[in-house]
Amino acid sequence: MVMVSFTKVALPSVLASFVVSYAFWDLSRNRKIFGGTVPPSTQNEEWGKETQKKFDEGWPREAAGPVVMNPISRQNYRKV
């Protein structure tokens, strides 16, 4: 028997599985073939700005300083 090389059989199979999985992902997420809608909160820029503002302000806690979402990316945040 002759051994078939990886590049002739396995590589095209792996690439074909990537194409099929991307097509299904695109159909289910972007084209909404199973129904559903995009939430209004992700479409509205004002909602995003207000949410970002609340994240930047933090919120009070009983025993410590304010909690700030993702403090690593917010090194210069303003404390409440």
Could you outline the blueprint of secondary structure elements for this entry?
Elements: H1 10-29, H2 40-43, H3 45-57
Please compute the radius of gyration using only Cα atoms.
24 Å
* Multimerization state: single chain
Order of helices and strands: HHH
Give the domain tally.
2
Which blocks of ≥5 consecutive residues have pLDDT under 50? none
Derived from helix and strand composition plus strand pairing, the structural class reads mainly alpha
Query: Whole-number average pLDDT?
Result: 78
Beginning-to-end CA distance, first to last residue = 74 Å
**Main sheet properties:** none
The total of helices stands at 3
Give the amount of beta strand, in percent. Answer: under 5%
Form type: elongated
Helix content: 40-55%
β-strand number? 0
InterPro entries: DUF1138
Pfam family, one: DUF1138
